[in-house]
Every structure is written in structure tokens, then in C-alpha cells.
Design a protein that fits this description.
It comes from Pedobacter helvus. This is FAD/NAD(P)-binding oxidoreductase. Pfam families: Pyr_redox_2. Its EC number is 1.-.-.-. By secondary structure, the chain is an alpha/beta fold. The protein has nine helices and 21 strands. It has two domains: 188 residues, FAD/NAD(P)-binding domain (3-Layer(bba) Sandwich), CATH 3.50.50; 174 residues, FAD/NAD(P)-binding domain, CATH 3.50.50.100. Helix 1 links the parallel strand 1 and strand 2. The longest helix has 19 residues. The two termini are 37 Å apart. Bound molecules: flavin-adenine dinucleotide.
Amino acid sequence: MEKHYQILIVGGGNAGLSVASQLLRKRKGLSIGIIEPSENHYYQPAWTLVGAGIFDIQKTIRNEKDFIPKNATWIKEAVSEFNPTSNKVICSSGKEISYDYLIVCPGIQLDWNKIKGLKDTLGKNNVSSNYNFNSAPYTWEMIKNFKGGIAVFTNPSTPIKCGGAPHKIMYLAVDYWRKKGILDKCDIHYISGATVIFGVPEYKATLEEVLKKGNIKVHYSANTIGIDANNKTIEFETKSTPSTIKQSLSETTAACYSINEASQADLTNKVTLSFDLCHAVPPQSAPDFIKKSPLADASNPYGYVEVNKNTMQHSRFANVFALGDCTNAPCSKTGAAIRKQAPVVVTNLLEVMDKQPVTAQYDGYSACPIPTQYGKLMLAEFDYNNKPKMTFPFDQAKPRWTMWILKTKVLPWLYWNKILKGTA
Ligand SMILES: Cc1cc2nc3c(=O)[nH]c(=O)nc-3n(C[C@H](O)[C@H](O)[C@H](O)COP(=O)(O)OP(=O)(O)OC[C@H]3O[C@@H](n4cnc5c(N)ncnc54)[C@H](O)[C@@H]3O)c2cc1C
């Protein structure tokens, strides 16, 4: 049997719940359906802190049902197909749901299989990833029990959610080993698909100091392709030709990722490195059901939803909006970006419903809170222009204790109590 909603939201994560709550605060009588298959809701930004041993993993998970706004309907299904010309989605159960307006926000897909061997060894054999609820606690086990040797941290050559997370955990591990007095026994490697540590020059300078102080060896334009847990080796490809440092704006990815856009054919040198500890981050792309749908941007290599990067309205279907990690907006994919995107979607969608021109604009704002050691954090905030966009009246490129408190205490509280409820 077909159901119909005035507004249908695909994905009840950070973006879906924020936007649903804000819409209902503005207009009580809306009929909103939220399609979300999971009974659990995760606060993913705290997984870095879990991996660093200072946050309880159980505090990052809550019941989805407790956060579905009153007056919205939770549809416990997974969308498998979009049919935007007939204003319908089809779920994997076969159920069809129609809508007047659609908001697409099912997040990003973790392509674990693109690193051979990773999935099978995740959470054991001294291989972990903070990008997974089950393995994040194991990251801390590895770091805590490390007695020295080769420690490897990887960052893929695709845009990812929270571009800083692959190196945040490395700085905390280094600080822990320094305080434990074993840093001189550690050979630390950062294997990154990017060309610089951070694409915004002001914040990059701070991180380069941290890399130097930790004696971290950095391999740029290096794409991890395999992890052999038995032989404890990692394999990555590097560019055969020297890459030029990309600081210019990209059409397809946020400048902060600084991914080398040279052709894949340049990736010819294969390097094998032994490791004793490995923190890996998988390549990421749009969920497959988006990639193959008419909503996808055919020119985007990762298959994201095609939106106008300022209005968040779909470029071809005027009654469709998208936000969060699934869009082709060339911003950094974070919850912080969603905080600025959600009000834009709400305003513009209500204007479309009222047959008015859309007026709200998203400027590409994103934030990346990067701990440089236990107790100190640099809050990197920036926009589409790759320019710092600092909230506080001090130089945020300098790591501070107050920003550490913001990340470890204030933001988790804000997320559950304000952001998901549409009041922040
Ligand atoms: C380790 C780590 C550290 C991070 N650190 C930070 C940080 O410090 N600061 C920050 O701002 N951000 C951070 N992030 C990023 C942040 O968590 C994401 O950007 C944010 O959660 C994206 O929200 P979203 O709603 O787009 O996707 P999600 O929150 O992932 O939600 C997507 C939802 O869609 C649902 N879904 C999936 N498939 C379907 C389907 N077929 N049909 C319907 N629903 C579906 C999912 O079940 C999920 O509930 C971090 C992420 C990670 C993993």
C-alpha cells in the first residue's frame, strides 16, 4: 500500500533529525515522514575521543525513537530507489512512499572493501578504525598497550566525513606515547591521499609544527590499497610524478581535503611498509542507492546528490533538497556544516512551498575540531573560499584548553539536547 507525506526525509541521522525538528518548529501542521532503518542513533564525532580513551562508547549511542520529533512519523525502512519524476521512493521491502517535497540525507558510504584485507582484520591484530562503532574502543586498546615500533595512520584519497579524524587520533596517540616515555621507540607514519596536512594555510601551519614535534613521517598523495594482518604490512600507491601542492579551490571536493586531482594513471609506485599498529580510514562515497539514482551528479566521481551548493536545492528537481554528507556541495563533510545547512534547507523549502523565490544561502561553512594533544585543541573553521571563519574573538589556529572543553563536553551535550531538537 502506498503512503503519502507532504515532506519525506530520507535518513534520520544528524541532518535528517535537525531539519525535521526545525521545520516543525516553524510550521507545526506539516506532515513529515522520516525514513530511517536503524533503531540506534550515533554521535559519531565522539568516536575520536573513544579511540583516545577519554569517552565512553555507550554514551555515543541512543535510541532513534527518542529523537524523532513529535508530530513526525518514523518509517522504519531503507530506501533503495528514487523516482523523482513521479515523486516516489521505493524501499528495500518493496513499499512505495510518495511525497510533495523530498529531503535527502542518508549520509556517506564507508567503502571498507577498497582496502584489501581491512574489513576482516578490523578490531583485531592491532588494526583499528575510529570510523566504526565496534572498533573505536579497540583503537584505545592498541594505543594504550603499544610498547614502541612502527605505527601507521592512513587517510584515503577520497573526500570523507570529518577530514580531520584520520590525523586527530594520531596526535593524541603521539602525545600519549610521549607522556609514557616511549616516543623515541616509535616510528610513526601518516599515509595520506592528500597533498598537505590541511588545506587552509592558517591551520596547516599549526599542524605542521605538531607533525615536526612528534617526528611523524608523512607520505602525501599515497593511497592505501591493502592491509595484510598476518604479515603486518600495509600497501599503498604513490604518484610516479611529483604532485603540485593543491591550494586552489576544487569543484568537486572541499579545499580542506587537498586531494591530488592528477589522474589515477599516475598512481603507479607501490610501496609496502611493515607496521606494529595501524589506524585505518576507508575510502568513502555516496551510498550506492544514490549513485545509481537520477538524483546523483553524473559528473561527480563519488556519485553524490546534485545540489546547488548555496541553496541546497536539487539542480534538476525543484521539490528536492539534500544536505549532510551525501551532497556534492564542495564543503567539508561534518556535523558542523549541517548546523549551517539545515536552516538554509528549512527556509528555502518553505519558500518553495509558498511559491516564493528561495533566499537562504549556505556559504560552505564547516568546522574541524583538531586536538593537538590531550587538553589542547585547535578549532578550525572555514568556508568555500578556504578562508578561516573564526567564531571566537581570538586566534583559533592556536590550540587551547577552552576549545578542548568545547569538543569533549559542550558539543556532545549540544548535539543531544539542542541540535537534534532543532534549537541550535
Ligand atoms: C570518527 C568520526 C569523527 C567525526 N568528527 C566530527 C567532528 O569532530 N565534528 C563534526 O562536525 N563532524 C564530525 N564527524 C562527521 C559527522 O558525524 C557527520 O558529518 C554527520 O554525522 C553527517 O550527518 P548525516 O545526517 O549526513 O549522516 P549520518 O549522521 O551518518 O546519518 C545518516 C542516516 O541515514 C540512514 N540511512 C542510511 N541508509 C539509508 C537508507 N537506505 N534509507 C534511509 N536511511 C538511511 C542511516 O541509518 C543514518 O541514520 C565525524 C565522523 C566520524 C565517523
